[in-house]
Amino acid sequence: MALVRVISSDGAAFLVSQRLAKRSGKLKTEIETFRKSSDNSEAQPEIRIVTIRAEILRLVLQWLQQHQNDPVLPANQNEQDGRGDAEMGQSQWDRDFLAPMDLGIVMELILAANHLEVKGLLDITCKLVESKITGRTVDEIRTAFKLKSDFKGNEEEQTRLENRWCVEN
Amino acid sequence: MEMESAIEDAVETAEDILIRMQMMEPERMMEQYCQSINETATESAKTVKNGVLNIFSKILTNVLNDDLVIDNNSNSESYDGQNPLMIDLVLRNVLKYLSIQDLCSCRLVCKLWNTEAGAYVRRKHRIVFSPNCIEKMANFTAFMKAQLDQDYNEEDENSNDKYSSSSPTIPRGRYIPPYTDFSFTAQYPRINFSRPIVRDFSMTYGQYVKKLEIFYPNDSSLSARDFTQFFLQGMPNVQYIHFVNLPTKLTQSSFLQSRTIMTPRHLQNNESPQTQSQTSCNDYDVNNRISSSGSSTSSSSSNNNSIILNNDNTIKDNNILCNKDNSVVETVEETQQQQPTHPLCQDCSLRWIFLTHLKIDRTLLMEGAWSESFLEDLFSTMPNLKHYELWTWNSAGGDGHSNPYFTCLTRSQRENLVSLYPGSVGENLLKGLADYGLSSLKKLHLPVLNGEVSAQSVELLLMNLKGTLQELQINCSSMQDSRMIHFPRMEKLVMLHMIISVPWKNVYTLFTPSIEYHYQFPVLETLKLELAVYHDFGFIHYFFPANNGSVCRSMRELDISFSGYRDDKFIGIVAKIFPNLVKLRLDGYGNRILASICHYLQNLEYFEMYLIYGFNVDDQLTGVDRKICNEIRKSERYLDFKVDDTQVLPSLANLTKLSTLKIKQKDYQAKFWPQAQCITDITGYFALSKIRTLRHLHIESVKV
Fold first, then answer.
1. How far apart are CA B277 and CA B289, in angstroms?
2. Are A95 and B8 inside 8 Å of each other by CB?
3. Hey, which of A135, A136, B94, B228 would disulfide with A140, CB 3.0 to 4.6 Å?
4. What residues does the SKP1 component POZ domain cover (chain A) (predicted)?
């Protein structure tokens, strides 16, 4: 079995099968690049992911492992496709997987899924965040997700005025 | 442990429930929808009603108390370097399904969120203007005018750092209007939109309107001049138009004779006296129009104030949106100066060049067919039409009413059409369609074929379209010789929807010999059948032949509606010929059919069914014998019964891949027999709570 060594930002190395790794768009590209540049076709690729720490990388690989037999979702699925993608992806396992995580970990996982191009994982984590937004006020959203307003002048007020047209009277 | 996982399930489906919460009173919702009846609920509640309420209170508590975990330890700091919610692609994924209210909150978070959430608001929200609240339109126009002016002024000062353009479709450094979807609804006859206000709206904001719905009753007044000015010239970037109705007077003759020219926003002051004089003439005749249009043509050609759109069909550049951009107007004026009086050049301006979708609905107010000259003018304004939907009432035999709506299409429009929904169709029109050269057509819906239509014409049409058609809906119920259409081999057909609402007397020869799906429709994924099979039960077997050994691997989705059919044999055949079926919707069934589904179709991921009056489904759904079900109900001691011991029949729990389950009830049944057929706690406990893959559960009938 062809393997690949994936190394996290804090130096932890994970040895995984290339078949599994290739389910990440990013790792797939990296492995192919390595193949092209390497003379020895037997050499084991080594990929360093400088933006993802071990704890998160382990979670991503764990998720990939669980979903290794799922059909691969197209990376840029049309936004108007409806609920299908997220719906199909999330299993009981996914729920158990996400349940113990605090929001910080989820956010890091989103970053990692985005960076490594793992569509299914990105979908379920985004879905979780979406459910945390529903029904919240602006301030609650900002606090929860550590976002700062960068509106200048009366931009925020303008948006507020625009929003008024969304309420039917 | 059980309870914990039940609560987690509840949180997962919380969103579904929240959506419904917004639409109805909580108590009503509790009665109608039930997420799942689980162990704790049945234990703690003695009646199903209490059980349901209890579950809902649990779900709601979970939803409402699901406080955000704001963790201050080091872990959560580590995404401070880059917040994933400041990456546009990630954010888009998150905002995808939020409601308008939530999107409005999101717009206020920061600039990036404003851009992304704003895009969704633009797509989802429709603003309705009706003449009895003209104040609303005036306010809207004034508000937008102020916004646009402000942006126009700021633009020169700091054009670079405004709105980092994450999406290529949004022009950099410009105010992005938030709404594009409008409806003009003059529901009350004889009340007219105030012309100056509509005119003002269309000149200020019209260029941003992309979706438009127009409803003027027959006897309302909208002159050809106003129609051209407000909607055609004033809203040149419209992509989708739905004509619910137009006033009869307008649709009786050509409307493009009147060369009414609108003044762009920045030059409009010159014209205000003229506007007032126009307002005073409410009712006018053709002569009046010609004379007034004549004068405005001459005045406009001397002033060169008109907005002329480039006639190049391929334009997709969003700069055209900005008529404030002087350069665009100037080039246009130059063009006009080269050929100032050429009539064709004037015509060029009168087009919705971005328009691809047209829907005309003539069913609401049917008197007064639109004249050919009006239709010809109308279609000439839509050179890029791709999707055309028409609804008319034709007489039982003819199709004269619909005919002009097709014959007036230009040749190139016919060749470019991608989808066609011609409403009610007769023999003449059908023959016409076969000869039309619909060489790009991918979707065709024929929901009403009237009594004149012959099988030959349908066959001819299908033969001509077989190379391109991907989606076909056909209603064969009331055709002349209601028996035979020989389908050609359709290599690209993905979706077939057949409606046969009247039982056929003759031998069915739709497919001869019996159908082999993989040959006849090699890429078919979806088959929808609406059947009336009161008399001939062989019909089901006709669509699902048992003996020819044909296997269709492309089929994913089956949707069957039928009445009065109780034989379950065809389910086994369906499983054989469609081995990859994952989605099933069944309207009308007997208990044995349900049991067969549980037995044969265990790969289903989506299952939707209707409960029918007069059946007890507990045993079918749970697999527990009916007698035992009754015992359980009497004793109310659910926990004493081990599922493995009691389950003797195939049950819903066999469907181990099921992620969506919808159990529905006909409205009339719910009304007349409220107790008729309900999901009880027995089903909840023995079946629903056992399907671990379930993500969406929709139940309309719960015993309360």
1. 13
2. yes
3. A136
4. 4-69
Residue with tokens 């917040």: B83
CATH number at residue A50: 3.30.710.10
> Which of A79, A137, A151 faces B111 most closely, judged by CB atoms?
A151
- Residue B387, judged by CB atoms within 10 A of its CB (0-12, 13-18, 19+), counts as middle
Chain B positions in Cβ-Cβ contact with residue A52 (cut-off 8 Å): none
CA distance B425 to A70: 45
Burial of residue B75 (number of CB atoms within 10 Å: 0-12, 13-18, 19+)? middle
Q: What's the pLDDT tens digit per position in B465-510?
A: 999 999 999 887 766 555 567 788 999 999 999 887 765 555 454 5
> Mutation test of the interface with chain A: which of B90, B93, B97, choosing the one with the most A Cβ atoms within 10 A?
B93
User: What would the DSSP string read from start to end of B436-472?
Assistant: S--TT--EEEE-EE-TT--HHHHHHHHHHHTTT--EE
Percentage of residues of chain B with pLDDT beyond 90:
13
For residue A116, the model assigns a pLDDT of 92
Cβ atoms of B62 and B7 closer than 8 Å: yes
Query: What's the gap in Å between the CA of B253 and the closest CA on chain A?
Result: 37
Mark yes or no for CB contact B76/A161 under 8 Å.
Answer: no
- Amino acid A3 reads L
Contact across the interface for A122 and B140, Cβ inside 8 Å: no
Question: Does residue A161 belong to any structural domain of this protein?
Answer: no
What one-character-per-residue DSSP string does B257-269 give? TS---PPPGGGGG
Is B109 in Cβ contact with A159 (below 8 Å)?
Answer: no
Nearest CA in chain B to A83: B97
Is B290 part of the contact surface with chain A (CB cutoff 8 Å)?
A: no
Domain that holds residue A60: 3-149
Chain B segment 189-248 residues within 8 A of A by beta carbon are none
Paired strand residues for B44: none
Peptide bond before residue B264 is cis, with ω within 30 degrees of 0: no
What is the length of chain B? 704
On chain B, the residues whose CB falls within 8 A of the CB of A146 are 79-80, 83
Is residue A113 in a domain? yes
Q: What is the DSSP secondary structure assignment for residue B155, as one 8-state letter?
A: H
Question: DSSP class of residue B690?
Answer: G
pTM over the 0.90 mark: no
The answer to whether residue A166 scores a pLDDT higher than 70 is yes
Q: Is the pLDDT assigned to residue B52 strictly greater than 50?
A: no
**Other Cβ atoms within 10 Å of B330 Cβ, number:** 10
As for the ipTM of the complex, it is: 0.79
Cβ contact, residue pair A147, B113, below 8 Å: yes
The band of B349, judged by pLDDT with boundaries at 50, 70 and 90, is low
Q: Where are the beta strands (DSSP E) in B216-348?
A: 240-245
Q: Measured between alpha carbons, how far is B380 from B374 in angstroms, rounded to an integer? A: 10
Q: What share of chain A is helix, strand, coil (3-state, %, to 5)?
A: 55, 10, 35
- The number of domains in chain A is 1
Q: Does A165 reside within a domain? A: no
- Residues B501, B481 contacting (CB under 8 angstroms): no
Sequential DSSP letters for B515-549 = --HHHHSTT--EEEEEE--SS-THHHHHHS-SSS-
Give the span between the Cα atoms of B704 and B555, in whole angstroms. Answer: 39
Residues B324 and B341: their CA atoms lie apart, in Å, by 25
- First-to-final CA distance of chain B: 28
Which range has the top average pLDDT, B5-9, B129-133, B559-563?
Answer: B559-563
CB contact under 8 A, A102 and B83: no
B114 CB neighbours in chain A (<8 A) are 151, 155, 159
Model confidence at B224: pLDDT above 80: yes
Please check the confidence at residue B702 and state whether its pLDDT lies above 90.
no
* Tokens (6 digits) for B632: 């359980």
- Check pLDDT > 80 for residue B339: no
- Model pLDDT, residue B48: 37
